[in-house]
């Protein structure tokens, strides 16, 4: 719908912020900065964290004793984690604004869109509570992994809101509908198994004091093998979606984007395995995988019944 272009643009900005938060969270994990702010929601008991050890509060030792990496103040870790929290806050304010706009524009005509925007705020609250739990549990690996799930749901809701606001038509293609469903399940499983690989890497790297990167994948076992096998199945499904999308103008951009994402994801995965888990490839791998999941979900929505 043409008169909804501004609204759709706003939702896309919120979706972009979701990916920025995913990237920021991955950088936090990659740089081992998760306990850079050892309390929550403040940081060393302050709204704005210290820049150096001289700005630490008098009772700072009670915070440092909770840190996962070491017991010395690390300004880099502190500010990486603090920026991650700020970006999550920006996302929260953007969602509040989106709720206001959604109710003004759609409450009487398309109430489902308005209530979907409210669900986004619910997810932001859940994410914040999980952030508190992560700090409370001193970065327990399972808690960190669970922290990802709500943000994926949030991205999916944004995509659904865009489709509803645009009033996209339905495409009749049973084969493509089935393959897109399979691809969505495969990529979701890939992301979840990937988090388990990452959990294993976190445990091993911590035991090695974050040195000897060539050994970080040594204890992943069959999980990594499954992850690699599913990667090729996912790639085949995505290539098929790209090929079939050429027959549908509405799907061509999504199909091409999906092709670019799967190539980038495979390259980053190969880089992680063959180059001893370089830091730059870890956030890229997660963001590309997340983008694939969201893109396939958007693709799949073209085959749902319009309401």
From TrEMBL:
Transmembrane segments: 82-101, 113-134, 146-163, 175-196, 216-242, 254-273, 285-303
Domain of life the protein comes from: Bacteria
GO cellular component: membrane
Keywords per UniProt: Cell membrane, Disulfide bond, Heme biosynthesis, Iron, Membrane, Metal-binding, Oxidoreductase, Transmembrane, Transmembrane helix
Keyword Membrane: yes
Subcellular location: Membrane
GO biological process, one term: heme A biosynthetic process
Topology of the protein relative to the lipid bilayer: Multi-pass membrane protein
PANTHER family in alphabetical order: HEME A SYNTHASE (PTHR35457)
Pathway(s) the chain acts in: Porphyrin-containing compound metabolism
Pfam families the record matches: COX15-CtaA
A GO term, aspect molecular function: metal ion binding
Protein name in the entry: Heme A synthase
Keyword Iron: yes
Principal subcellular localization: membrane
